[in-house]
Amino acid sequence: MATVAPPVTSVDAGGAWGRLAELQERALHDRAGALDELARTFDAGRVPAGLDGETQGRFVAFCVRPGLDRALARLARVWLPWSGKRFDAAAARGENLLLGGRIAGFGFRTRVESGVLMIDYAAVRSNPRALRQVRDELVEIAPGVHLGQALWTGRGGPARLAYWALRSG
Which residues pair with 62 in a beta bridge? Predict the structure, then answer.
């Protein structure tokens, strides 16, 4: 019987960030195993406390279809303008950081819902229509390390699109 690795939440911040990088690589050749570990890690996470200011972002894995996921992951290795998020905890809002933080856009509102920090793009009318049908959910998996999932909420949703991560502090 194969052993199941513990969720990433069982390690410290440096280990958690490194493990997410390993899962990013693993998703290219063992998609099912990587997505299973990411799902278990997300489920074991907790609502982020005190998330405020700029964070560093990392794409981890797409979850749409195997062939498409690999193609998108390879493209993201070469060109991914997203570099993290900026949170304003007092105002319950934030924005995405692009191009190493030189550009900020695609604003969102935040709230705690069902044990996650909900990142709501639909609440910002200036966002493109397609983005307003995406909802991000974020949990903390180690001090200062967060795992997020992007969910499609449009027709046929909700459906998981991708996992991504943030590091603060």
Answer: 162
pLDDT in tens, 110-155: 999 999 999 999 999 999 999 999 999 999 999 999 999 999 998 8
Q: Residue 63 in contact with residue 169, Cβ under 8 Å?
A: no
Beta-sheet strands, E only, within 65-169: 82-88, 93-98, 103-113, 116-120, 134-142, 145-152, 159-167
Residue 18, phi then psi, degrees to nearest 5: -65, -40
Closest of 87, 76, 81 to residue 112, by C-alpha: 87
pTM of the prediction? 0.90
At 100, give phi and psi (nearest 5°). Answer: 70, 25
Residues present in the chain in total: 169
| Contact predicate 47/41, CB 8 Å | no
